[in-house]
Amino acid sequence: MASDYDYDLFVIGGGSGGVRAARMAAGTGARVGIAEEYRYGGTCVIRGCVPKKLFSYAAHFHGEFEDAAGFGWTLEGARFSWAKLIANKDAEIDRLEKIYVKLLNDAGVTIHRGHARFLDAHRVEVGDKVLSAQTILIATGGHPVFPPGHGWEHAISSNEAFHLKALPDHATVYGGGYIACEFASIFNGLGVKVTQIYRGPQILRGFDEDVRGALAAEMVKNGVDLRVESTIDRIDKKDGNLALHLSNGEVLETGLVMAATGRRPNTQNLGLEAAGVELTDKGAVKVDAYSRTGQDNIYAVGDVTDRIALTPVAIQEAMAFVDTVFRGTPRAMDHADVPAAVFSHPTVSTVGLSEHGAREKFGDVDVYRSAFRPLKHTLSGRDERAMMKMIVDRASQKVVGAHMVGTDAPEIIQGIAIAIKAGATKQIFDATVGIHPTAAEEFVTMREPVPEP
Ligand code: NDP
To answer: Which CATH superfamily hosts domain 346-444?
Structure first.
C-alpha cells in the first residue's frame, strides 16, 4: 500500500498493542513508524503485568517456605532482600525492552522517541519533526488515577510501587480491584503488614459472588487486614509516617499508602481535536468494532479505548486492525469470553459469565461448585481452600462461565477458556477424563449442580 505520505502507518505508543500492530503491518510490506515517549514495552512490560508477576513469585516463597516444613524440610536463615529483587527485576525489564526494540528494528519499523501529537488527521509532530502517514494508530494506553481528596500527593500508585527504595513495616492499599488485590497480596507475602481498604461491601466488584467471597476469606486468612465499606477521607503526614483518616473516624498510621483506584486512558495532549478524533464520556478514544475512530484513517487499540484493559486483548485488537487495513481481510476482534486473572494470593481466574450475569442472560442455569482443601495442604498444614465454579445454560447445556480461586487458577482457566470459546457443553466436560491428582480435574468431575437458591 504505497502512499505519498512519509509512512503507510504511524503508531503512537510503544506498548503491547502498538508494537504488535507496527511489526505485523511492516510484515505486509507497509512503511511503518512508531513513537514512544517513555520506554518501549508499555504498561505491561515496564510497570505492569511482567514486573508485577515477578514480585508475586517473590512473595509466594514466603508461604512456600512455611509449607515445606510439613514435607520434612527445615529451612534456616531464609532472608529477603528487596534491593536484590528490584535490581534483578530492573535487569529483566531492561532485557525485555531491548527485545521489543530489536523486534521493531528487525521488522523494519522506524523508531521515534518522544511525545507524538496530531497536527491534523494525517500529520503528527514528534519533537521537532513533522511526520505524515496514510493511517495512524493510537495505542497510548492508560495511567493510574488517584481519588479526589486531601493528601493523595503523599500516596503512590502502582507505577511507583515498582521502584520503592525500601519496604515499609505497614502498607495500606486503597481499592478492591485487580491492582489492589494483587499488591495487597504481594506486600503481605513479602512480610509487610497490610491493610486493604475498599469502599464497597466486597472486593472484586463485577466478579462472581462466590469468587469475591472466597478471595476475601483467603486474603484475610493470609493476614491482610481487609476493611470493606470504608474510605480514606484524608491523608496527613505525621512523624515520617502517614495518618489516614478513615470514614469510621479512625486514624490509621501507615508507612505507605498505595492508591489502586482505577486507570484512565491516555488521551490528553495528543491533539485529538486537531485530528477530529472523538472521545467517549469516560475520556476514551471512541472506536467501532474494527477499532476505527470517527476519522476514516485513524484507529485505536488497547487501554486507550477502554474496552477490556488487558494486554492480550490489545494484541488481538492490533492483529485484527492489521488484517483489516493491511491484509484486505476486515475482521472485528471478538471480545466475548475473554479469560482474565487476578494475581492475588491465592490467584483468581475467570472466563465467561458470573452466576448473576448468566441468570440475567439465560434465566435458567445450572451451577456446579466445589470447594476443597488442596492435597498439598494436607501435609503443609496451611488452612487454604480452593474454589471452583461452573455455570451452565440449562437449555443448551453449554458451559457459559468458569471460575476458580486457588493455586494455578490462571494456568487452569486458560485451557477451560478454549473449551468455552468452542462452545463445549457440560456433557463434553463430563466426557473428558481428569488428570489425577490435580485441582484442575475438578472441572471435569463436578456432577451434581448446587440446589437452586
Ligand atoms: P479496577 O477498576 O479493577 O479497580 C479500581 C478499584 O478502585 C475498584 O475497587 C473501585 O471501586 C475503586 N475506586 C475507584 N474510584 C474510587 C474512588 N474515587 N474512591 C475509592 N475507591 C475507588 O482498577 P485497577 O486500577 O485495579 O486496574 C485497572 C484495570 O487494569 C483493570 O480493570 C484490569 O482491566 C487491568 N489490570 C489487569 C490485571 C491482570 O490482568 N491481572 C492486573 C492489573 C490491572 P468500585 O469497585 O466500587 O468501583
So the answer is: FAD/NAD-linked reductase, C-terminal dimerisation domain (3.30.390.30)
**CA 105–ligand 1 middle distance (angstroms):** 35
Lining ligand 1 with CB less than 6 A are 147, 175-180, 182, 198-200, 205, 260-263, 309-310, 340-343
* Res. 239 pLDDT band, cuts 50 70 90: confident
Average pLDDT over residues 214-230: 98
Domain boundaries, the chain: 7-144+264-326, 152-260, 346-444
Q: Does domain 7-144+264-326 have CATH number 3.20.20.110?
A: no
Residues labelled as active-site residues? 436
pLDDT at 2 over 70: no
* Closest-lying ligand 1 atom to the alpha carbon of residue 309: 34
Compute the distance from residue 122 Cα to the ligand 1 centre, in Å.
Answer: 35
Could you write out the three-class secondary structure of the chain? CCCCCCEEEEEECCCHHHHHHHHHHHHCCCCEEEEECCCCCHHHHHHCHHHHHHHHHHHHHHHHHHHHHCCCCCCCCCCCCHHHHHHHHHHHHHHHHHHHHHHHHHCCCEEEECCEEEEECCEEEECCEEEEEEEEEECCCEEECCCCCECHHHCECHHHHCCCCCCCCEEEEECCCHHHHHHHHHHHHCCCEEEEECCCCCCCCCCCHHHHHHHHHHHHHCCCEEECCCCEEEEEEECCEEEEEECCCCEEEECEEEECCCEEECCCCCCHHHHCCCECCCCCECCCCCCECCCCCEEECHHHHCCCCCHHHHHHHHHHHHHHHHCCCCCCCCCCCCCEEECCCCCEEEEECCHHHHHHHHCCEEEEEEEECCCHHHHHCCCCCEEEEEEEECCCCEEEEEEEECCCHHHHHHHHHHHHHCCCEHHHHHHCCCCCCCCCCHHHHCCCCCCCC
Atom number, ligand 1, closest to the C-alpha of residue 179? 26
Q: What percent of the chain has pLDDT over 90?
A: 97
CATH of 152-260 among 3.30.70.790, 3.50.50.60, 3.20.20.70, 3.30.1330.60: 3.50.50.60
Percent of the chain surpassing pLDDT 70: 99
CA of residue 247 to ligand 1 center, whole Å = 20
Please check the confidence at residue 52 and state whether its pLDDT lies above 80. yes
